[in-house]
Structures are given as C-alpha cells and as structure tokens.
Amino acid sequence: MTIRKSILIKRPPEVCFRVFCEEMSEWWPGGFGGKDSKPRIEPRVGGRFYERRPDGSEYQIGEVTVYSPPEHLGFTFRAPSWDVSTQVEIRFRAESAGTRVELEHSGWDQDAKTRDARKGFDGGWDFVLGRYQSRFADIH
After folding, report:
1. At a CB cut-off of 8 Å and minimum separation 6, what does 1 contact?
2. Is residue 140 assigned to a domain?
3. What is the DSSP string of 46-91?
4. pTM of the model
5. Pairing mode, strands 3-9 and 86-95
6. pLDDT (tens digit per residue) in 74-99
7. Which of 88, 109, 89, 92 is nearest to 101 (CA)?
8. Is residue 42 part of a domain?
9. How far apart are CA 30 and CA 12, in angstroms?
10. Is 46 part of a structural domain of the chain?
C-alpha cells in the first residue's frame, strides 16, 4: 500500500534537492495550520520537518531520517489526528533530460486512521509534486 510517484524536472539533482528542501515554504501548499502555514525542513538527520503558522506557533510534522544531498531525503510524516508516523522517501536521480524525482510514502497499514487517509494522500501528493514542479518555472 505504498504511495509511489515519479516526476521529471529538467534541472540537475543539486538544484532539485535544494529547491525541495530550502525553498519548501515557497511552493508547498498550506498545511495543517491553514493556507498561510509555511513548512520547513532542518537540513540534517534528526532535524525537524515542521510548519510555522502565521501566529508564530509551530507543528512538527515529522523528523528527517535521511539527508544525503543531492540524492536522497527521508522524513517521518504524522498528521495531527494520527497516533503513528508514516515514512516518506524522496530520491533525486540524474537522467539525460534532468532529474527523476521519485517519492515513496509508506506505513499506511499501521492503524485505521492512516489506512483511511491513504487515498487522500495519493491524490494529495500529485498536487504537492505539481506545485513543486511549477516552482521551477520561476527559477532561471
């Protein structure tokens, strides 16, 4: 029941990794704290994946489990209503036309809440990756 997504970005892996991690708050859609929440990743294993809300409060979505620029990023992911965390792995692989970005989101079988949420996240990742891909139109 792992969600798998793959997109091609016509940029080198170093740029794709940087935009994903360092510019996340510019392209990631608003999160659990509303459309104006800004997600961030602390660039190290053990760092937080969190969102900062307009009122200054923060929600920790997960923890960075893999930080290996420019090839691999991993983090745990937990919605506020969940009792468990799922796992997201993103790989950035050089291809002749640019970078293949491959996402895997696993851990959906842990309980009823995550099983129920999986279908929404399948389409949600399409939306998130579409926003990520469109960010490159702004980068020259």
Report:
1. 106, 108, 109, 115, 118
2. no
3. T-EEEEE-TTS-EEEEEEEEEEETTTEEEEEE--TT-SS-EEEEEE
4. 0.93
5. unpaired
6. 999 999 999 999 999 999 999 988 99
7. 92
8. yes
9. 27
10. yes
Q: Residue 31 is inside which H or E element, if any?
A: none
Number of domains, the chain: 1
Name the nearest CA neighbour of 128 among 20, 9, 10: 20
pLDDT, tens digit, 9 for 90 and up, residues 29-83:
877 767 788 899 999 999 999 999 888 899 999 999 999 999 999 999 999 999 9
Q: Are 88 and 4 in contact (CB under 8 A)?
A: no
What per-residue confidence (pLDDT) applies to 33?
67
Query: Residue 83 CA to chain centroid, in angstroms?
Result: 20
* Full domain range(s) for residue 23: 3-135
> What is the CATH number for 54?
3.30.530.20
The pLDDT assigned to 30 comes to 76
- Give the pLDDT confidence score for residue 54 in this predicted structure: 87
115 located within any domain:
yes
Scan for tokens 């940087």, then name that residue.
18
What whole-number distance in Å separates Cα of residue 22 and Cα of residue 42? 9
Helix and strand totals (H; E) in the chain: 3, 7
Taking residues 133-139, report their average pLDDT: 86
